[in-house]
Structures
1.
Amino acid sequence: MEVLKNYIDGAWTPSTSKETIDIVNPATQEVLAKVPYGKDTKKDVDLAVASAFKAYQEWSKVPVLKRVQVLYRLKSLMEENTEVLAEIITNESGKTYGESVGEIQRAIENIEVACGTPMLMAGDVIEDIATGIDEMMIRQPIGVAACITPFNFPSMIVFWFLPYAIATGNAFVVKPSEKVPMTMMKIFEFIDQLDIPKGLVSLVHGGKDSVDAILENPVIKAVSFVGSTPVARYIYSKGTANGKRVQAQGGAKNPVVILPDADIEMSTKIIADSVYGCAGQRCLAASTIITVDDQKRQIKDALYETVKSRTTGYGLDREVNMGPVITPESKARITGLIQKGLNEGAKMLLDGRNASIAGYEKGNFLNPTILEDVALDKELIKTEIFGPVMSLISMKNIDDALKFVNSGNYGNMACLFTGSGANARRFRNEADAGNIGINIGVAAPMAQFPFSGWKDSFFGDLHGQGKHAIEFFTQTKVIIERWPNIWSRKF
Ligand code: NAD
């Protein structure tokens, strides 16, 4: 069985660690490969960082116009290899082939935005800020940066950071989720073809030990993290305590409100896609659906009809629209939470717990579940389920709905379905979340905009993507200067 190598100093390098864990296809339970794990992975990180620092010293002197040329090449390689990449993503993460192609497209869009770095990192100048004195601000790279990413988007999330980091002149270390590291192995075959200094971009595997090595290595100046809230909080506090710049995106519990003036057919289809897309394993998955006024019955029936026709199965079968969840432990956690909701008084409208897919009986499958009348003061309504489960609740009016939306600990996304501009305007102004959808079910910011979580969904200041990423990976320098014209000086 293949043990994955790291990519360090421009070469495929076996890990110093002899310990490994299995990478498992969630639909079949087939072991795809083994990934290095354990405390010795710390040495791998330190080797990668030493080489990255040397590469940074060379790369930061390369003109930005030349630096972005490698991104054009990377974009082409990603486009030419979309099919093979999508198959790898589906096999290791379980999502459908279409969902895999979609996330590669989002990754490519971030490369495209970062190709604009020669404009985006431009500074400012004020001539004659005082008589004969000019002042300017320039942006310089920070050095070596690293990202630590989750299992649910094996390709896309790394690209919220990597293209911006290298375009602005930094070196970059990637630590993917140990559950889905094979997608990055393929992407690093493309990175290996780029005309960049050895060690500029490295891949290191592992779990908590390699993460701690990143947080402890003094050469790393910035850390980008995406994952669950407890780990995000840990990364932020440890990373900043060690003097690093940190952006840490955490978990979510996303409410969606449907007002009586919404288009019910359109809304319910969009909401079902949001709840059950990627088997509910998206940080922007709708989770709690709030109906307002007397439309509960109609919305409930429409949701039920839309949801029950969805097909679950192996993501490479093209007619399937929902794959398995990532691990058997995850499946057990989700079914446990459903049971908890029922114990807390919720009613079962659609029970997806007994999914069995012919030919894939060992897979971690769950069918869509709908719970209604979920208790507002109990655990299920507050906990991130990260699985294909919808909780339906109803409120008297938009005031109560907004109060509920703002009562949660998370602030990743809140959505409203309505036909009223006035209600939409009020919601986008008053909802406490960093990403707002109006008649949109997955309010994922495109690459031009920051991925803006709030509250327990984000720790830090500058977010991933777009101009925020350019700011995160650069430090500003302000220069004030005087150049007396010695030729016209009177002595
Ligand atoms: P996770 O927090 O378990 O793992 C994320 C990364 O952290 C992995 O690389 C892992 O190796 C590392 N890690 C895990 N435990 C650690 C520990 N104790 N110390 C140090 N490092 C550790 O997350 P996951 O299960 O892979 O991903 C799902 C979570 O990610 C969900 O909560 C989801 O909402 C969140 N997520 C958030 C966003 C966002 O933009 N806010 C996007 C995608 C996923």
2.
Amino acid sequence: PLATSSPAVTDTNARQKKTVLIALPYPLPGWGFHYSLPQGMALRPGDIVHVPLGKRVETGIVWEEPTHLPAPLRPPAAPPLNPARLRPVIACLPLPPLPQTLRQFIDWVAAYTLSPLGLVLATSLRAMPAKPVMEKANWLWQPLSFTPPTPFSPLANMDKHPLAKTDKPGPFEYSQHHSAYPSFTQPEPSPNLQPAKLSGPSVRITPQRSKILQCLTQAIEEGKTGLSTAELAEQTQTNPTVIKAMSKAGLIKQGAGPAAPLFSPPDLTYNVPTLSEHQAKAAEALSVPIRQNIFCVTLLEGVTGSGKTEVYFQAMAEALAQNRQVLVLLPEIALSAQWISRFQHRFGVTPAVWHSDMTPKQRRKVWQGCITHQAKVVVGARSALFLPFATLGLVVVDEEHETTFKQEEGFSYNARDMAIIRAQLSQAPVILASATPSLETYANIQAGKYRHVLLPNRHGHATTPQIKLLDMRQHPPLRGMFLSPLLTEAMAETMDKNQQVMLFLNRRGYAPLTLCRSCGHRLQCPHCTAWLVAHHNPPRLICHQCDHQEPLPSVCPACGADHNLAPIGPGIERIAEEVHTLFPQKRVTIMASDTLTSPQKTSQIVEQITAGQKDIIIGTQSVAKGWHFPHLTLVGIVDADLSLAGGDLRAGEHTLQLLHQVAGRAGREQVQGHVLIQSYMPEHPVIQALAKGDFTAFLRQESKIRQAGFWPPYGRMIALIITAETEQKAELIALQLAKTAPHHRTDLQILGPSTPVLAILRDQHRRRMLIRAPKTIFLQPIIQHWLSLIPKESQKHIDIDVDPYSF
Ligand code: ADP
Ligand code: ZN
């Protein structure tokens, strides 16, 4: 019997069956399922087991009651159960248990986002290897008599188990041996290990051969599994051919030694930069909590190019020196190629990378690397939060203000906020890095909850770019054009000096709207309340909401008028067309999700730009993020007003963050950068803040407005989104929600039901309700109770979005 560190098994009565709580990776209600424990099986929390579920065998995790959650988030107690009716656990798998910090994190995310526990658990288990992932074994010479230690012995009679031959057999080999965990990192015994038959007494033992045998025997006595050809040749001063001949003669054999680690450890001293005085001070401030292993959140603020990455690399080195793991969350994986080469430059190896584009095999390797502490640094997209880190010692969230950290498919969560919970559960410090911090982070600094470290200037000789507003009412473009003559003049001047220009417009395709000049008909998506966007490369109409595509028509589908369809407004392809007319000799490249289709494609385009093979870069928000283009000195923002329209309260904050990031691409090296901003409302506070580069003043102003209205981050908010196949049904459910809403609570504000701008999405009719409360109230139990009051059938049509982005 194995000692259990904390009892997962509930011993209700010595004579009764023991029960165990198991979480399964499926969106089922409740907080795990009870099973009985077979005689002689001992389980620890986190152990990975096979259990019967209906007629199938499923993989689950030994779970604990989530008593660590704050009371309002704790799920309601499960009804009492009859142990006699419980089915037994089938087997415990020979894998290390899921770490407690990860299990508690999964509890947190599920409770906070009001999602089924199993749905969140599934995110984590998706990459769990079915059996240990093996790195190439290290082949070593061994004396013939040597038998390598067996990693673990599979449970012999497993195939006789009544459940072992079901339609969906588990992917695991079974074992009862917990003590066999080292097997997870050891290579499988290789078939090459079979000893060759000794070929009789004729084998000659020359002095050289005898020396080799002695040397090997000594190595084995010292506890080694063998010696490599190089080691053996060096230690005995013999030629490798002698070693090969001995193997042929059956005197020695080649066997597997310990495998190389799945990931090479970073070399902390590989390429240490000389930090400037400000940078060194910042790095030291970040390192203090790392050395003390305490949870705290620090904002590392600094204009783009101030060296935030260099500074947090230094903090990472500190965590690695403490032998703890580091997680770096990046907003978009497109960024990772540049980031990884910087990491390589600093630490001499590549980190473990985690994103949605990986093969299952790559994912399993990272998953295992995390749980066995072989992956020291993981850089990834938001779901990297669910990796089973053995000893997490630092979490970095780069570009913390980025809206892509908010996941909206599956269960909605904000990866930045959840990263902070993840770190807190591991007692690890957090670094949030940004040039344009989010209002949430700003509010936490104001409240004294987060620390603030500032890098005041760009590194080296680079200065911040000069920003100029272009009032489009006074400097309009020519008819049918979108670029003001002032901007095109500046472009020509810049390119005359062999420098690059970037034009930014956050709109993919050629034109956002196509209109029939005869009847006024507008081409609309058949599945959404959205216009079809015309694309020319390749030619087609695309709905940017649901990705519906159709050919570009030449005839109006409403009135049949021939060749009278007109593109209205610009997309980046139309800007590229205009640029081509103006500068036919120049080399233009487009950076948008349509062209950055894979990491390879992205690297290729980035390399061309970096090498100076392009003159003009035209891009959507894909160009805003972190790129460092040394020859780029002029940035033109084609339409600064674009995202300010619309009723979203966060529009101002997000526009400013985005445009500030874009502006930061200009002049990152010696040459002074310039930014020209085209706007029809240059007096707008956001455009003014952008032109003056005074982000803090904007945050101060914006926080006053939000504070006065108890809007986030000064209040809590949850959105309920109703989706149904028919408008009638959506209305009906909206009515049910409105009727049962907690109107009696005067401390809450209930808004809606309302019809969102995107009233129909993918043929689903949508309605929305919002509930708001002061920061002191947890809304989760209120929502849970509210939803329990409407019919079960209706509940299925409601998505819960905790801390929604738009309001
Ligand atoms: P940020 O993350 O704030 O945008 P980076 O860390 O990317 O800034 O730094 C901008 C550029 O300056 C990079 O090319 C980086 O290598 C360089 N740099 C910053 N600090 C140093 C330093 N102390 N020594 C050498 N190069 C530096
Ligand atoms: Zn659509």
